[in-house]
Amino acid sequence: MAEIKIYSAVTCPYAHRTRLVLQEKGIDFELNEIDLQNKPANFTDISPYGKVPALVHGDKRVWESAIINEYLDEVFPNPPLLPKNPIDRAQARIWIDFANTRLVPAFSNLLRNPDIQKQEEAKKELYKHLEFIENEAFGKLSLNGPYWFGESVSLVDFTFYPWFERWPALKQYRGFGIPTEFTRIRQWKHALKELDSVKAIANPKEFYIEKYARFATPVAV
Ligand SMILES: N[C@@H](CCC(=O)N[C@@H](CS)C(=O)NCC(=O)O)C(=O)O
After folding, report:
1. What is the pTM of this model?
2. % residues pLDDT > 70 (the chain)
3. Residues 102 and 190 grouped into a single domain
4. Using one digit for the tens of pLDDT, what is the confidence trace for 167-213?
5. Which residue's CA is the nearest one to ligand 1's atom 10?
6. Band (141; pLDDT cuts 50, 70, 90)
7. What is the band of 218 on the pLDDT scale with cuts at 50, 70, 90?
């Protein structure tokens, strides 16, 4: 029986982050797919916030994707997914925080807000964040390779990638693809797509377009 149990949902980008780390490290795990519309009774015994992903390791529980991923990196250190020296580790955590507090909220606002004016504001916000990534991350940190920190893939790559795999839904419903001027971001997405760990659990764009229709065009009740 697998030592690690993961509670996940295939549509969830946060759970996708953790599944990518499990894949990349080749960790044996038991996958429990949760129907978020109909969660099992007592799910909060496993996941105190009632969300996915959640991880059970023996009799211990860990939740919150960014924390789960750091936990996995500590317990299963190969291959290491955080840089070694403290300043680079600090940079990695800054970018993980940037994903959680800036890029992801702008993505969600654009996809979910039915108000056209608000969507235009969200597009500007998202553009600004992509520009910052292009210049501050890929223009400065990634000089010797295609990943966030150049040569080696890291938790930062796996933290952002799920939203980029879902980007076709933004393009479909809000006409906002990844702007062509952000060449490094586009190269990075391509490099990530080619990783075995990413390929192993990738979904086609049609999958997200179908699944995200209910966020983009909610039906009035
Ligand atoms: N901050 C959390 C967010 C996780 C999250 O929002 N998961 C969503 C699905 S993508 C969820 O489980 N929603 C169920 C609910 O809130 O009832 C993380 O990083 O793990």
Report:
1. 0.97
2. 98
3. yes
4. 999 999 999 999 999 999 999 999 999 999 999 999 999 999 999 99
5. 12
6. confident
7. low
Binding site membership of 10 for ligand 1 (Cβ less than 6 Å): no
Give me the CATH number covering residue 49.
Answer: 3.40.30.10
Check 4, 6, 9, 12 and give the catalytic one: 12
The token pair at 212 is 């995200």
Looking up tokens 């600090």 gives 90
Taking the centre of ligand 1 as the mean of its atom positions, its distance from the CA of residue 52, in whole angstroms, is 5
Is the CB of residue 186 less than 8 Å from the CB of residue 178? yes
Domain containing 23 equals 4-75
What pLDDT, in 10s, does the model give residues 97-121? 999 999 999 999 999 999 999 999 9
Q: 139-147 long-range contacts, Cβ below 8 Å, gap at least 24?
A: 139/184, 141/91, 142/184, 142/188, 146/187, 146/188, 146/190, 146/191, 147/188, 147/191, 147/192
Is 175 found in the same domain as 120? Answer: yes
**What's the domain count of the chain?**
2
- Residues 130 and 207 grouped into a single domain: yes
Measured in angstroms, how far is the CA atom of residue 61 from the centroid of ligand 1? 16
Q: Is the CB of 12 under 6 A from ligand 1?
A: yes
Q: Is 65 in the pocket of ligand 1 (CB under 6 A)?
A: yes
Per the annotation, the verdict on 160 as an active-site residue is no
Q: In ligand 1, which atom is closest to the CA atom of 47?
A: 12
R_g over Cα of the chain: 17
Spatial distance between the Cα atoms of 95 and 85, rounded to a whole number of angstroms? 16
Do residues 93 and 181 both lie within one domain?
Answer: yes
